[in-house]
Amino acid sequence: MIKPVGPICNLDCRYCFYLEKEKLFSPTENFRMPDAVLERFIQHYIESQPVPVITFAWQGGEPTLLGVDFFRKAVALQQRYANGKRIENALQTNGVLLDDEWGAFLAENQFLVGLSVDGPRELHDRYRVDKKQQPTFDRVMRGLEVLKKHHVEFNTLTVVHRHNARHPLEVYRFLKDIGSRYLQFIPLVERLPDAEARALGLDLAGPPSPDAVTASSEVTRWSVLPEDYGEFLVHIFDEWVRQDVGQVFVQLFDVALANWMGEPPGLCVFMERCGAAVAMEHNGDVYSCDHYVYPHYRLGNVLNASLGEMVQSAFQQKFGRDKSDTLPAYCRRCDVRFACHGECPKHRFLRTPDGEPGLNYLCAAYKRFFHHIDPFMRRMTQLIQSGLPAAHIMFLTARRNDPCPCGSGRKFKQCCWDHVAALRAGRSCGNVTKLVGPAGFEPATKGL
C-alpha cells in the first residue's frame, strides 16, 4: 500500500485514524513523494514479485492531491521497468477532486478506483466533512459521475461506524442504486489514547502489543458497536443471498466463501497469518502494516533496503506469525475460527470470558455473522464444487420454507435442500432422482 502524499488530505473526516500521523513527521516535512523514492520503489516492487501481474495500490491521505502529472510519471516508470509483466493500478480516493482530466487519465490507464462513501447523504455527511467542517456528499457524487462518464471501473469502500451501522439496508440499497457492484465494508474501531499514544502526541491509541497483559478497551464514540456490526452484516447478507448473488460482490462475503471452501481468503484480516501487506509512506519508509505506522514497526526505507529484505526480515516474519501464535485459547476452540482467525490484531484488546487477553473487539459480531451464514456458505460450496454457479443459491433460498417437491411432507430446507447440488451434477440422491428445468426437480417413482 503506497501513500505518496502521506497522511495529507483535503477532508477532515472526524473518524480518520491516519490524519494525525502528520504529527510523527517534522513540521517542515514536504508530504510529496520525491522522484527518487517513486522510481526506486516502482523498480524494486516489480522486481521483487515473481508473478506475471503486478498491482500497485495508491492510497493516502488523499492521493489525488498530487495531481494527474504525478501519476503519469508513475505509469511511465511502471512501463519502463515492467519487463514483460502486466501492470495494474488501484487508486483509493474520496472523489472530491475528480474532474474530466482525471477521468480521462484513469480510463486510459485502466485504473481501478475505490471511492469512499458511507451511504446516503445523512449517513455519509455524519463524519465525512472537509477542512471547514462542511458536508462532502454532493462533491463525492460529482466525482462518481466523472468515473461513470469516462467508464472508469470503480468499487465503493464504506466505513461502518456507530451511526450508519444501524441502517444496513439503507446503506446497501443506496450503494447499489449509485451503480456500485463491488462493495467493501470496513468496521471502524479506534481506541482512546493510551500512555504511548500521548507520548507521541496522538489522539488515538495504536494497536495493542501482542505480549501486552493489559490494554485499554475504551473506544471512541464513533467506533461501531459489535452487536450493531454483526446485525449490519446479517441484514445485508440476507438481502444479497436472496437477490444479488453473482450481480453484486461484497468483499466480506467473497472472503467468507473462500474460507468455507478451504481456499486462501485473499484478505489479510481473515488469514491465519499476516505480514505481507506492508505500507510505504511518502518518504520511502516501510511499515509492517497500514494500521501499524508507528516508530516501532518501521522496517526500513526503500532508498537503502530492498522490499524483499524488509518483508522477509526476522521482525516482520514474527509480526506475521504473532497473529496466530498469540491467539487466545478461547479463540482456538471457536467453531468459526477457520473463517475468522482472530481478525485483525489491531482489534484484539478485550479479555476472553476466562480472563485471557487478546480477544477481538468484534468477536461477538463475527460469531453472529459467521454462524448465520454457515448453511448458505455450505450450500454455495456444494454448488461450486459441482460445477454450478453460486447464484443458484438464490433459487434454493427462495424455496427453503416451501414443502419439499419430493413429496415427503417436510419443508424443503429439512429435506432435499442438502441434495440439490448433487442432483445438478447428475447424481441420484435420496427421494429425488432428477431436476426438471432450472427451477424444479422430479421425485422418484419408487421407494417414497
How would you describe the overall organization of this protein?
It is a single chain. With 448 residues, the protein is of the alpha/beta class. Helices cover 35% and strands 13% of the residues. The protein contains 16 helices and 13 strands. It has helices at residues 35-47, 68-81, 100-108, 121-124, 137-149, 168-177, 195-199, 226-243, 251-260, 307-311, 314-325, 329-332, 337-340, 363-385, 393-398, 420-424, and strands at residues 53-58, 86-93, 112-116, 154-160, 182-187, 249-250, 279-280, 285-287, 298-301, 348-351, 357-360, 432-435, 441-443. The strands form four sheets. A six-stranded parallel sheet has the order 1-2-3-4-5-6. It has a three-stranded antiparallel sheet with strand order 7-8-9. A two-stranded antiparallel sheet has the order 10-11. β7 (279-280) and β8 form a beta hairpin. α8 runs parallel beside α14. The N and C termini lie far apart (60 Å). The model is unreliable at 424-448 (pLDDT under 50).
Keywords:
single chain, 448 residues, alpha/beta, six-stranded parallel sheet, three-stranded antiparallel sheet, 16 helices
Largest sheet: 6 strands, parallel
Number of helices: 16
Distance between the termini: 60 Å
Classify the secondary structure makeup into a structural class: alpha/beta
In angstroms, what is the radius of gyration?
24 Å
**Which strand order do you get reading across the main beta sheet?**
1-2-3-4-5-6
Percentage of residues in strands: 5-15%
Helix content: 25-40%
Order of helices and strands: HEHEHEHHEHEHHEHEEEHHHHEEHHHEE
Q: Tell the overall outline.
A: globular
**Low-confidence spans:** 424-448
Number of strands: 13
Give the overall average pLDDT: 91
